[in-house]
Write a structure and sequence with these properties.
By secondary structure, the protein is mainly α. The chain has a domain of 58 residues. The longest helix has 28 residues.
């Protein structure tokens, strides 16, 4: 039996992102991956000389916010000769 193929007039073409938007997302992903790779390499080089730094980095995701804030303040104070960035 012969059947005609009827096109569905309500059918919409698939929605795709413009090329520029796709390119931007790929660039962001590449930069993030590159940044993470560089950071990981730096930490791998620093860990033998500064094991305490590795401890802080590994613990960071699980630290409460007030502990993170205290660590940041201590580092800022040490790097600015006793002034925090809020005081500068």
């Amino acid at each position: 039996m012969w059947q005609s193929q009827r096109s569905d007039s309500n059918r919409q073409p698939p929605v795709t992102k413009p090329e520029s938007e796709n390119a931007n997302e790929l660039n962001k992903q590449a930069l993030t991956e590159t940044g993470e790779t560089v950071l990981a390499s730096c930490l791998a080089l620093l860990t033998p000389k500064y094991p305490d730094l590795a401890l802080v980095v590994n613990s960071w995701p699980n630290l409460p916010e007030h502990i993170k804030a205290t660590i940041k303040t201590l580092v800022e104070t040490a790097n600015t000769g006793g002034k925090t960035t809020k005081e500068s």
